Amino acid sequence: MTVLTATAAAAVALTSQAAHADPKPTKSEVKAKVDKLYHEAEVATEKANGAKEQQDKLKKQADALQDKVARGQLDQLTAKQAESLQKIQAKQRTLAQQRQEAQGKLADLADVRKTLNENKKKYQGKLADAQKLLNTLTAAERAKMAEDEQRASRAAGDRVELGNEVPASARGAAALQAAATQLGKPYVSGGSGPNSFDCSGLTQWAYAQAGVQITRTTYTQVNDGVQIGRSALKPGDLVFFSNTSHVGLYAGNNQVLHAPYPGQVVRYEAMEYLGAFQFGVRV
């Protein structure tokens, strides 16, 4: 083979490799992948929120049991010598049982903390992957994506036509009114106000302002009232999307007030842009 022939063959091989190389993803492909990663990050956030709530509950239970054990030990030390052997043995059995319960709660607490840390890492990993994808776009493509995002939603200060639908209850109206005071606040994973929010943090905070305590995560808020269909929605109802991994407050005229995802702020948004609608919950 001559040098010229070898060079030509190499050029053909390189051209063939280039032809089979993965093309740069389009802006719409990047957006679809980024949206999926944000959804997966939100799922991890809600699981982390649930683990945090469980952790706090277990910590209180473990502390209470340990206090009982400590008081029981003190009672034994100060018990009168005249106390019968039978009573002392009964107290010792109770003390041993409480000690065992406390150790069990502490073991559960360690497991929950592990779950919490795993979901936090998963959330951070999804966000990092999303940022890598966004970095593959040109500045012009990123600007166009931001413009499309703005068009699909409503900025915090924009006038939104909510219609004149009547809320189903005074507490629903009060919760929606409270949430509206938080327009423009940033989305932060684990945020429950007043400086930042994630989706379920906003709904929990809003109802707390209305004097109603609801749970912390989307997966438990689904049980905080009566489930209703889309046609029955009234302002102030909770609305769930994407396999109940996202929640917001129905605001009227097909609009939802919610904390969307990282990099965005509390805002109104039309329901059709929020993913697959699951159901509403009237608290």
List its salient traits.
single chain; 283 residues; alpha+beta; endopeptidase fold (from Nostoc punctiforme); 2 domains; 6 strands; globular; disordered N terminus
- Under CATH at level 1, the class of the largest domain stands as Alpha Beta
Strand order, main sheet: write it out.
1-6-2-3-4-5
Task: Output the CATH topology of the largest domain.
Answer: endopeptidase fold (from Nostoc punctiforme)
- What is the CATH H-level superfamily of the largest domain? endopeptidase domain like (from Nostoc punctiforme)
What's the end-to-end separation, in Å? 81 Å
- Mean pLDDT over the full residue set: 80
Helical residue percent?
55-70%
The major pleated sheet works out as: 6 strands, antiparallel
Low-confidence stretches: 1-21
Strand content: 5-15%
- H and E order: HHHHHHHEEEEEE
Class derived from helix and strand content = alpha+beta
By DSSP, the count of extended strands is 6
Radius of gyration: 28 Å
Q: Count of helical segments?
A: 7
Number of domains: 2
User: Any idea what the shape is?
Assistant: globular
- From the coordinates shown, what is the CATH architecture of the largest domain? Alpha-Beta Complex
